[in-house]
UniProtKB/TrEMBL annotation:
It comes from Pseudaminobacter salicylatoxidans. Its EC number is 3.6.1.27. It is a multi-pass membrane protein. GO terms for cellular component: plasma membrane. The chain crosses the membrane at residues 48-70, 82-104, 110-129, 141-161, 187-205, 217-238, 250-267. This is Undecaprenyl-diphosphatase. PANTHER family: UNDECAPRENYL-DIPHOSPHATASE (PTHR30622). It catalyses: di-trans,octa-cis-undecaprenyl diphosphate + H2O = di-trans,octa-cis-undecaprenyl phosphate + phosphate + H(+). Its main location: membrane.
Amino acid sequence: MEHQTIAEALLLGLLEGLTEFIPVSSTGHILLAGHFLGFQSTGKAFEVLIQLGAILAILTVYFGRLWKIATDLPSSPRARRFVFGILIAFLPAAVIGALAHGFIKTVLFETPMLICIMLILGGLVLLWVDKLPLKPTYHEAMDFPLPVCLAIGFFQCLAMIPGTSRSGSTIVGALLMGADKRSAAEFSFFLAMPTMAGAFAYDLFKNRDILTAADLPIIATGFIAAFVMAVIVVRWLLDYVSRHGYALFAWWRLAVGGAGLVALLVWG
């Protein structure tokens, strides 16, 4: 049974890394896969804690860029505004996530039908936005005005509902606020760092009394798999969406959400 569980953790970790930064809802995919696999993690912590692997993937791929921003902070108003903008965008999710943590984990995370519906609705929204004749105003993630950053932060709060997608909600928000497709995805990458790190730290704190040493191999397996897969996805994604947009991910959501609904109705 232990080997089977490790294999499931590996599969779910790869799924997390594959889906975290594309607008298809990594949490929704993992919860649905876990539901049909019968995978049960302590306090639903696995699904959140393996996101640290995806965070480290961003840090690895963007290390040079992040280091330059950090060293430019004392002398560059642009760098300071960008960091402040990311923090402002992070704030709404931090507040709502902390206040609604119990409801999210015990109700929303336990409702596979809701996840499938949100996958489908989100796919329709992506198709709609991808076809809008938008004229981008912003082409660099570092140049988003602070009000735009805050608006994107409120869009991110929609992802409290699993199946919505954190990256999907922030990307759609950025596109509607005037960003081009590449800068929208890149801002979503940067915003993921404080958001996912905060969710990781808060969930680890909330589950500190129920996690045991037996949970560590499972979490570590998922973490490593998520890291490797996320590095691959991050290196590929920006160029892809710049050329092709987000329609592929919309159809992906519709397919997974539809298949999940059928499976739930047939097998429960």
